[in-house]
Structures are given as C-alpha cells and as structure tokens.
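TASK: fixed-backbone design
INPUT:
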C-alpha cells in the first residue's frame, strides 16, 4: 500500500481533477451516484498511475471547464460517468 504522503497527493490530484470537471466527489457519494468506497478505489487507481506529473501539468494548463479528464487518467471512465450524472 502506498505511504501516507503518496495517498494524500493522489487524493488531491483526484479531487482537483474532479472539481475542474465540475464533479463534487463528496456530493456524488452522498447523493448515491457512487459509493464512498468507490472514492477509495479511485484514489488507489490514481496511485498506480506512472505519470502523476502529467496530471499536475494538465491541471495547471487545462481550460477552466474541460470536457473530460485526460485520456491517460486511470479514473477517466468514472469521472466521465460522474460528469454525465452531474449535468
């Protein structure tokens, strides 16, 4: 299992990416769009990404309301589904 610093970094990356896409992960879980355990699974998928620096770069340069997460994002499908549910 990744150490605490790695987990915190990827929680931040996932949350910032979701927010940039107009998705509030906490609200989505509370409203039943997905389970709180799915957030943990998403963070663990994120920790397995070989290029978190690409995500940092995307967050720094992406438009304020991008249409979707980067294609390489291990949570692309989840975030896309949550975007559709939020609309």
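OUTPUT:
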């Amino acid at each position: 299992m990744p150490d605490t610093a790695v987990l915190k970094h990827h929680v931040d990356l996932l949350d910032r990416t979701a927010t940039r896409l107009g998705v509030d992960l906490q609200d989505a879980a509370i409203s039943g769009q997905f389970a709180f355990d799915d957030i943990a699974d998403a963070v663990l998928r994120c920790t397995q990404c070989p290029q978190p620096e690409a995500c940092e770069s995307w967050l720094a340069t992406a438009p304020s309301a991008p249409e979707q997460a980067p294609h390489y994002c291990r949570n692309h499908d989840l975030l896309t589904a949550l975007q559709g549910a939020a609309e």
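COMMENT: The chain has one domain: 4-86.
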